[in-house]
Design goal:
The protein is α/β, with parallel strands linked by helices and 225 residues long. It has a domain at 2-158: Glutaredoxin (3-Layer(aba) Sandwich). Helices cover 58% and strands 12% of the residues. It has a five-stranded mixed beta sheet with strand order 1-3-2-4-5, with helices on one face.
C-alpha cells in the first residue's frame, strides 16, 4: 500500500514538472475540435469559483499523467459564463463539472483526486457509468436546441438597449405586416361570390333560365303534330 502511494506521489511530482496541454473549448470551436471518435475530458469552470481554482492543479496533473502514459485522451476546459451555449447544452448546474466524452456519449466524472480520475480513465471504468441519453444528451436535438437558446441569451444580454428597441420594433412590424396580409386574404375570400370561385356555377346559372322556354317550345311542337 505504501509502495503504491509512493509511486503515485512520484508520478504526480513528475507530472508537475511538465506543462499541461489543455485546450480552451468555446461555443465556437467545440463541434470542430471534439470529434465523435475522440476521447475527451472536459471541465466546466468559473473564473471567480474558489472550488474551481482548487481543482485546477489536480485537473492539470491528470492531463500530464495521461500524456506521459501515451494515452490519446484529450483534455479541455470551458469557461462556464463565457460559453453559455455549451453550459446549457451540457445542462451544467454547478461548477466545477467534469464530463467524459467518447463516441458522442457523455458521462459525468465525479472523482476529484488525480489518482482516482487516472484510474477511471485508464481502466475504462467510465464504461460502467450510464451516459446521458434521450433529451438530456448534449448531442440530442433537444440538447442542441437548448445550446442555441443559451447562445441567444448571451447575445441578448450583450445587446445595447437601443439595439433591443430596434429588434423589437422590427419584429412588431413583421408581425403586423404578416397579420394584415393574412387578414386581407381572408376578407377577399369572404367577399367573393360563388361565380367568382367557380366559373361553372356562373355558366349553369346563366343557362338555367333558357330551360323552361325550351320545354315550352317542345310542348307546342307536339301539339301541332
Amino acid at each position: 500500500m505504501n509502495i503504491a502511494r509512493f509511486v503515485c506521489f512520484l508520478l504526480l511530482a513528475c507530472a508537475a514538472l511538465a506543462v499541461a496541454d489543455i485546450v480552451q473549448i468555446t461555443d465556437e470551436n467545440f463541434d470542430t475540435l471534439v470529434k465523435k471518435s475522440d476521447e475527451w475530458v472536459l471541465e466546466f469552470f468559473g473564473t471567480n469559483c474558489g472550488a474551481c481554482r482548487a481543482f485546477q492543479p489536480k485537473f492539470e496533473a491528470v492531463e500530464r499523467i495521461m500524456s506521459s502514459h501515451g494515452r490519446p485522451t484529450q483534455f479541455g476546459t470551458i469557461d462556464y459564463s463565457q460559453n453559455p451555449g455549451l453550459s446549457a447544452r451540457f445542462f451544467v448546474s454547478r461548477i466545477p463539472t467534469v464530463v467524459h466524452i467518447k463516441d458522442h456519449q457523455v458521462r459525468p466524472v465525479t472523482a476529484r483526486m488525480p489518482d482516482m480520475i487516472v484510474k477511471f480513465l485508464e481502466n475504462e471504468e467510465w464504461r460502467d457509468v450510464k451516459p446521458s441519453s434521450g433529451l438530456l444528451s448534449p448531442y440530442s436535438l433537444f440538447g442542441t436546441l437548448v445550446g442555441y437558446i443559451g447562445k441567444a441569451t448571451k447575445w441578448l444580454t450583450q445587446t445595447s438597449p437601443w439595439g433591443m428597441v430596434g429588434l423589437l420594433t422590427g419584429l412588431l412590424i413583421a408581425v403586423v405586416g404578416l397579420s394584415w396580409k393574412v387578414g386581407g386574404n381572408v376578407r377577399e375570400e369572404v367577399t367573393r361570390t360563388p361565380e367568382d370561385r367557380d366559373p361553372a356555377v356562373s355558366s349553369t346559372t346563366t343557362a338555367s333560365p333558357a330551360l323552361p322556354q325550351e320545354k315550352a317550345r317542345k310542348r307546342r311542337s307536339k301539339r301541332n303534330d
